Amino acid sequence: MSDASGRHPAEEPENPLDEAAQRAAAEHEPGLAEELEQERAREAAPAIEETDDRWRDAFRRVAAGGWAVSLGAILLAVIAGSLMIIVTDEAVQAAAGYFFARPGDMLTAAAEAVGGAYSALFQGAVYNFGADTFAAGIRPLTQTLTNATPLIAAGLGVAIAFRAGLLNIGGQGQMLVSAAAAGWVGFGLTGLPVVVHLIVAMVAGILAGALWAGIAGLLKARTGAHEVIVTIMLNYVAYYLVSYFLATPGLMQAPGSANPKTPPTPESATLPPLLGERYNLHWGFVLSLLAVVVVWWLLNRSAVGFSYRAVGENPRAARVAGIDVPRATVSVMLVAGALVGLAGITQVLGTVTTGFGADIDAGIGFDAITVALLGNSNPVGVLGAGILFGGFKAGGSAMQAAEGIPIEIVLVVQSLIVLFIAAPPLVRAIFRLPQPGSTPKKKRSQTARKEVSA
Question: Rounded to whole angstroms, how far apart are CA atoms 305 and 328?
């Protein structure tokens, strides 16, 4: 039955609060009004119509999530990289000169160029099929994991800040001060037992990173200073401060050397190799895996993690709920800095043990932002993204050496991944993915429709 306006009673929207109640709630609790607006937005989100095929419904739910956008961004970036490989390949350029006479030559040259490039990338990052033994064949994989170790730890530091609504752009500075603190304890303190020396150096580096990031968190909480500006400025402060220490005899410069470089890290403060001396992989990778587990538990199973997520979703509503937002801001930046500090100590105590300079961060502090974005600020996603970018770094050099492909193409692919991740509507439009926040709507049968219309 329908009323005079032609609208069926079943189609009347259900609203838990009328307009008067909403206005009263807004006057007494400002954060509640914003929560109501978000609830109405979720209710108005487009619905995914359920069918009788449960596998199809499950696939559509997965496609509506952030993972589909990340995979789509990687695929689009790889396609764009393939086009650049084709354009820059000399054999393709030569065959393009007589394309209309023999088009097959150009297509064959293009396929060989792309196939050879990505084959070299795979063999340089995962497994070398030309190696004589299995132990030699997996060396590229161990190098990928070595490259991924600091990316995972630093990516977690950026991701946990993202979840709290903060932009931690200070990974470079946090890595530098943590590397300086861990390195100074490593070569500056002597006479300590092996295990004690390593633990003290690790704790010093982690605390230095946490305190350096805590400066930005404290300024954000107390003065409202934007964390992006503060962390970027702290990057410059850390860089020039560490550069001064490295160039000053008696501080961090190696004795008898004119180069701005530290002495080698003694064996007592070095992370031991994980798979033997033949590989570069060390126990820092295990520490990064443990950090993934700890961050997952912190965000999903602890009250502190709940406060971080609440502040990140809606600071005003979190304040109404009784959460100390300034305290949570300082706390999450301390944790983020500690995680980035873990990346710094894995560099100086595991990967670069012959002495380091001001370039010890190797761009990892900024690459961690890409890793966190690609991993959707999820600890497991950050793990996968870190390994992927570690493979890009290991395989890019092999691709350049084997096929003559410029390594800058790998950097362009990484940059395009960030570009597509930053534009999820574009990726969803290209692959026709459903919009996020869509709620399932069961498909009515013809009989049900007839009963409602009657």
Answer: 9
